[in-house]
Amino acid sequence: MPDFATIIGGLTDALTLTNILYIILGVAVGQIVGAIPGMTLLMALAIAIPLTYTLDTLTALAFLISVNKGGTVGGAIPAILINTPGTPESAATALDGHPMAKKGRPMKAMKYSLYYSVFGDISSDIVLITISAPLALVALRMGPIEITALMILAFTVITGLVGNSMVKGLMAAALGFLFASVGIDPGLGTPRFTFGSLDLYDGLPLTAMSIGLLAVSEIFRQIAATTRATSTASPIRVRSDDPEDRGVTFAELMANKYVAIRAFVIGTVIGAIPGLGSATAGFLSYSVTKQTAKDPESFGKGDPRGIAASEAANSAVVGANLIPLLTLGIPGNIAAALLVSAFIIHGVQPGPLLFEEQGRLIYGLFGAMLIANFCNLGVGQVGMRIWSLAIAAPNSVVYPAALLLCITGAYVTAGSMFGVYIMLAFGVLGYFMQRFGFSVVAFIIGYVLTPELESKMVQSILISRGDPMVVFQHPIALVLLALSVVSIVYLGPRKRTKKPEPEPIED
């Protein structure tokens, strides 16, 4: 565990003017992107990663995490004003946020969402800072055999929880394994699947591939879904004539403190489990709050408890999903998987050794996360009315601009048109994967984890001299493999249903 001087040094590094300015910029970008329906937070992260290529490591990571935090806040704005969540995380917020806005209190609803979102985010960051270093110490005691078993468990859990079919999830992960095999064999030093192309000797560029799978495929999907008959709901007038409807008092916030605390706990637990995401946390917290309320019939009619339950939970996932990434090197969700590529670009390998080798960087990152929360609050207070104007941005402007940024990012990271070709190819692949129900999350996490899994498997084979019975001498590995079998048996056969979209509120 890092010493006190390392911790203080890292926290101090986060307080430089450059870092603070990039944190504010990241929060503002995230909130704007979240406020534009059709522009997803993952698209913003995928596009932003290449822009950090020339930045200092701490500055780059602080900027990207700030984009992530800001997007969660910004997604609630269209959910409240036009009943169209800007990001999937804010879908549950629309259930009570939009009815409150229709009652003439849109600014009050947006401030509720902002305050409870910041509360959930800060609380989960404190949990991350508190438990990540001890968990990393535990992970360091695990050998290659145990880590291999842990990664197998992670894959079975992730593929079982995301998407509607575990079989399709496993197929998507296997496809990720296949593409991750392109390049030089780490054990033998021979080329694999390069087909004589020198561009493939270093493997497929992760950033260009991520931009294609997440951003370009989503642009293709949105364009395909757009028809001339598509109409946009008229935005609600943001400014209210009644001063009481424009703000939230401290007493009103404290009236829902137990709801917010329970939501933060749910979001933190969900975020720490690989494969689950913010949308799951938001809906689960909302459902629990409604079921335990004495007057559940008031939900869906503008109850602030619904906003508190959704926003505190989905924001708590942002910090908690870094727990498995920083301690085990396993991304908890797709946003964390994208952060892995940012770590790798800057020469940092996520995992338990990170606290020992890069302790100052990690605590600098923790400090930046705390600063980003307060910036989220300040930027949200100032920019809430401005971001609401982004709702009216036409698709004919949003999609071409986003595609141009995607092409620029792919070209910059690859240094040639090869990155653009990869981006477009995986954009088409991502579109058809979503179209036929294959998990893009499982694909990317499979791609990201394959090099480490392959390395640990080779080490395990060398240690065991090819004898599989050696695993019986490692009880922790046995337990993890047993849990993998249990997860396949439990998660595989059961029917998966898509999460229901929030029903539109009738006028």
Automatic annotation (TrEMBL):
Q: Please give one Pfam family short name.
A: TctA
Which keywords appear in this protein's UniProt record, sorted alphabetically?
Membrane, Transmembrane, Transmembrane helix
Q: Does the keyword Transmembrane helix apply?
A: yes
So where does this one cross the membrane? 20-49, 112-139, 170-188, 200-220, 263-286, 322-348, 360-379, 399-424, 431-450, 470-491
Q: Which InterPro entries match?
A: DUF112_TM (IPR002823)
| Key word Ribonucleoprotein present | no
> Where would I find the DUF112 domain in this sequence?
20-445
The name this protein goes by in its record: Tripartite tricarboxylate transporter TctA family protein
Q: Which organism is it from?
A: Martelella mediterranea DSM 17316
